[in-house]
Amino acid sequence: MSVAAAESVDDDLWSAIGDPTRRRMLDLLLIEGDGTATSLAQRLPVTRQAVAKHLGVLDRAGLVRGTPAGREKRYRVDDAQLARAVAQLSSVGAAWDARLQRIKRIAEAIQRTQQD
Amino acid sequence: MSVAAAESVDDDLWSAIGDPTRRRMLDLLLIEGDGTATSLAQRLPVTRQAVAKHLGVLDRAGLVRGTPAGREKRYRVDDAQLARAVAQLSSVGAAWDARLQRIKRIAEAIQRTQQD
DNA sequence: GCAACGTGCAACCAATGGTTGCGCTAGCGC
DNA sequence: GCGCTAGCGCAACCATTGGTTGCACGTTGC
Question: Which of B3, B23, B103 lies nearest to residue A28, judging by beta carbons?
């Protein structure tokens, strides 16, 4: 397996979900269905402006979409895009897992030959 | 499921594997067995010093261990710790996946009731 | 009409990923 | 033994980014 294969992940997507605050925001949006910068900030240990910036990042990554509604702007998760992100997460995990398994098998094989 | 449950990930571990350069370093170390700051820098688009800093981060996160060997310092992956990291990756993915599934089921249920 | 709420923009600060440059020590060739 | 080279560590510096405060502008409700 090539190195490039494991790093075939979309870097923007990964960096979007790499931030702990943004992960919690996605959690909240999934749980509550939607939310605004202000409503999310109330449930997070950061200011509204910080949340707004994060929403901008998530928006540019396509993970959320915001629609203006009067004086507020409601955001909701783009299911398909988040599913893509989850797939990439597990793909990296699977790649490492496979290599760890292979190393383990090799180690066991060596041990067997030494015990002969 | 609580928000805290999904964020039970060790933040240091996550931020360690959150950086794309560090992920590629882990890939290289897994493939080649071990490596030094210089040897890794040759295969990466960054300088030796940048690699050295990343190795420091990975070391503090417990993902790699370096042992001095003459004039060079060889690093190798800590299998157990990387396995832990992989587990946390998939745990976050699984949490989101579950919520997406639930949303999908609810949407389908609504559609069924509307078609009645 | 006006007070209050929600948003967006700008300036600023700290942390971090990256660079260059320098000095030091361990091995190798002679 | 002596010098040269390879590899490392440290320090200074720069750009990006996650965070803050402050302010100005549109929307809503009384």
Answer: B3
